[in-house]
Design brief:
Blueprint (H helix, E strand, L loop, with lengths): L2 E3 L6 E3 L1 E4 L12 H13 L4 E3 L7 H9 L6 E6 L4 H15 L4 E9 L2 H6 L1 H12 L3 E8 L2 H8 L6 E4 L13 H13 L3 E5 L11 H9 L6 E5 L3 H11 L6 H9 L4 E3 L8 H5 L5 E4 L2 E4 L19 E3 L1
Parallel strand pairs: 3-4, 3-10, 4-5, 5-6, 6-7, 7-8, 8-9, 9-10
Antiparallel strand pairs: 1-2, 11-14, 12-13
Helix pairs in contact: 1-2, 1-9, 3-5, 6-7, 9-10
Length: 315
């Protein structure tokens, strides 16, 4: 496993970051011991970096996985809080539930425009104070937009940017994968640390996972890549790929054989663009939201490219 310093933070992170969302209650909802065991397997395989968020409900998994032996893990979390006091509460909650007196990286969650960045000025002010007090080590933002990557690159108080980027550009709301890469390289030139998300497009690129991983690993400026993992087989497969090894074919077969389903997020606005493109006729807008007919869904992942709000994921 390769390790590099994330921007100017001094934090040396593994190329593969454990994406915590998938094991928690919002997605696969693994029992605590089972989810923590998957995370611990990643630690044992060389992963020293975990991405999570207040929303994900995965702090207990991290606490248990670290108690089982992962004591030197770098943790990044995020919050939608936009006031000084609400962000203080978010950071204190993370420390208490994870069982640490500090969090390495804390980010403004899912910033959608440079205007939302301005609207979170008070929350960022708390993160800067927390950094001076040693409660966090670095500040940052997560985003699905090129606009925010470019805006955050010019904000002195922001250390880290966590953008969505994948070979097909799935989930980027204001441009292409090429345009996002240009923005990422601009941010790197401005001294920001970059760790990416959704290299597999929220599961829509599972069928071409080897190609998608090879593409993201070849991009300059991206220090680490957060990948959601639900099983120990996925951990073994991904850590092998990120370590430059050729995974056993049986591992590929095991991961491909794992049961999956299409998830439609609560924030679906029912625009119907996905339904009109579904080749299996498995999607329909019902009472203002998309509903999936799981008997018809073939998990091809085509729908994800047409959702303007990244509501569809294969989990």
């Amino acid at each position: 496993m390769d390790y590099q310093v994330l921007g100017q933070t001094g934090l040396k992170v593994s190329k593969l970051c454990f994406g915590g969302l998938t094991i928690g209650p919002l997605q696969s909802n693994r029992p605590l011991a089972e989810g923590a065991a998957v995370m611990r397997a990643a630690f044992d395989a060389g992963v020293n970096f975990v991405d999570t968020a207040e929303l994900y409900g995965t702090y207990p998994y991290i606490r248990k996985a670290m108690a089982d032996g992962g004591k030197h893990i770098i943790i990044a979390s995020k919050s939608y809080a936009y006031t000084y006091e609400d962000m203080r509460t978010s950071v204190e909650t993370a420390c208490r539930e994870i069982g640490r007196d500090y969090i390495d990286i804390f980010l403004l969650h899912e910033q959608s425009s440079r205007m939302t960045l301005k609207g979170h000025a008070d929350a960022l002010a708390y993160l800067c104070d927390a950094k001076r007090q040693g409660i966090i080590r670095a500040t940052g933002v997560s985003t699905h937009t090129i606009d925010v990557v470019r805006a955050a690159a010019l904000i002195e108080e922001i250390d880290i940017i966590h953008p969505i980027i994948n070979i097909k550009g799935i989930g980027i709301t204001d441009g292409t994968a090429g345009e996002m890469l240009e923005a990422i390289r601009f941010a790197v030139d401005c001294g920001k640390g970059i760790y990416a998300m959704k290299a597999l497009g929220g599961g829509h690129l599972n069928a071409i996972a080897a190609q998608a991983f090879a593409w993201i690993l070849a991009q300059s400026g991206i220090t680490s890549i957060a990948v959601g993992m639900q099983t120990i087989d996925e951990v073994l497969l991904n850590t092998a790929i990120f370590s430059g090894k050729n995974p056993d074919s049986q591992l590929w077969d095991n991961v491909k054989a794992a049961p999956r389903r299409l998830l439609v997020e609560d924030w679906c606005a029912g625009c119907g663009q996905c339904a009109s493109r579904c080749p299996a006729g498995a999607l329909a807008v019902v009472e203002g939201k998309v509903r999936a007919d799981y008997a018809r869904c073939i998990l091809c992942g085509y729908c994800g490219a047409y959702c303007p709000d990244f509501c569809l994921k294969v989990i």
